[in-house]
């Protein structure tokens, strides 16, 4: 499979990552945020690091593919190419970004990256919130799985690179991926408790109708 076929997938993947990493609303002041523990403290920096790193890897991969196409030796095939695993990774990333985007639209001004209950807050029970209680985190988990497939399957830049900088970036990416997902999962009970205290019986009725936090019929 020609390495050039990977180029549109690189662009699509990184646009999707940019969407999930960009808050639709302004940040909430520290005084208005709920306490979510020490894990949550560095989440904004970790998210920015991963987004920036994703674009750096994307541009490096595009440059290497184009350089190989223009100046490469036909007898030495490019180590960067599209595989079923990387295509599946793109699918997960795009689906995760779409899910997050739907959450942005459904919650509107109430959607923030920070855990908080706003003065005008309402309990939203329609759209993706009629399927699971934390669909934005469902989207994040889909992206997490997709990024693992995209960045660490055969033919990917981080897997095929042999230089020290590339290896270090791959290790840093795994650490950041793990940290972000653990932090989001720790948020789940905190957000449920905040909403339960704020909306009482309305939340309890909704939780009975929508008992799953992330994955229908699983969790």
UniProtKB/TrEMBL annotation:
Give the organism's phylogenetic lineage: Eukaryota, Fungi, Dikarya, Basidiomycota, Agaricomycotina
Location in the cell:
Endomembrane system
Note the PANTHER family from the entry.
PROTEIN-S ISOPRENYLCYSTEINE O-METHYLTRANSFERASE, PROTEIN-S-ISOPRENYLCYSTEINE O-METHYLTRANSFERASE
Q: What is this protein called?
A: Uncharacterized protein
What positions belong to coiled-coil segments? none
Which molecular-function annotation in GO is an example for this chain? methyltransferase activity
Query: Where is it mainly found?
Result: membrane
Q: Which UniProt keywords apply?
A: Endoplasmic reticulum, Lipid biosynthesis, Lipid metabolism, Membrane, Methyltransferase, Phospholipid biosynthesis, Phospholipid metabolism, S-adenosyl-L-methionine, Transferase, Transmembrane, Transmembrane helix
Which InterPro entries does the entry link to?
Phopholipid_MeTrfase (IPR007318)
- Give the CC-aspect GO terms: endomembrane system
Q: Does the keyword Mitochondrion apply?
A: no
- State the annotated membrane topology for this chain: Multi-pass membrane protein
Extract one GO BP annotation from the record: phosphatidylcholine biosynthetic process
A Pfam entry, by short name: PEMT
Segments traversing the membrane: 49-72, 78-98, 135-152, 164-188
């Amino acid at each position: 499979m020609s390495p050039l076929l990977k180029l549109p997938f690189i662009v699509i993947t990184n646009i999707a990552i940019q969407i999930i990493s960009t808050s639709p609303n302004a940040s909430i002041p520290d005084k208005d945020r709920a306490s979510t523990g020490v894990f949550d403290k560095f989440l904004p920096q970790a998210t920015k690091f991963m987004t920036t790193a994703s674009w750096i890897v994307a541009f490096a991969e595009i440059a290497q593919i184009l350089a190989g196409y223009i100046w490469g030796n036909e007898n030495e095939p490019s180590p960067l190419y599209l595989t079923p695993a990387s295509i599946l990774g793109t699918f997960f990333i795009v689906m995760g970004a779409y899910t997050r985007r739907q959450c942005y639209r459904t919650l509107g001004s109430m959607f923030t990256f920070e855990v908080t209950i706003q003065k005008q807050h309402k309990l939203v029970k329609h759209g993706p919130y009629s399927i699971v209680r934390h669909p934005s985190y469902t989207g994040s988990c889909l992206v997490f799985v997709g990024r693992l497939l995209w960045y660490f399957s055969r033919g990917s830049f981080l897997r095929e690179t042999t230089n020290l900088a590339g290896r270090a970036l791959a290790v840093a990416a795994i650490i950041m991926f793990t940290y972000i997902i653990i932090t989001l999962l720790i948020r789940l009970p905190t957000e449920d408790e905040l909403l339960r205290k704020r909306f009482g019986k309305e939340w309890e009725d909704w939780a009975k109708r929508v008992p799953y936090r992330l994955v229908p019929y699983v969790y």
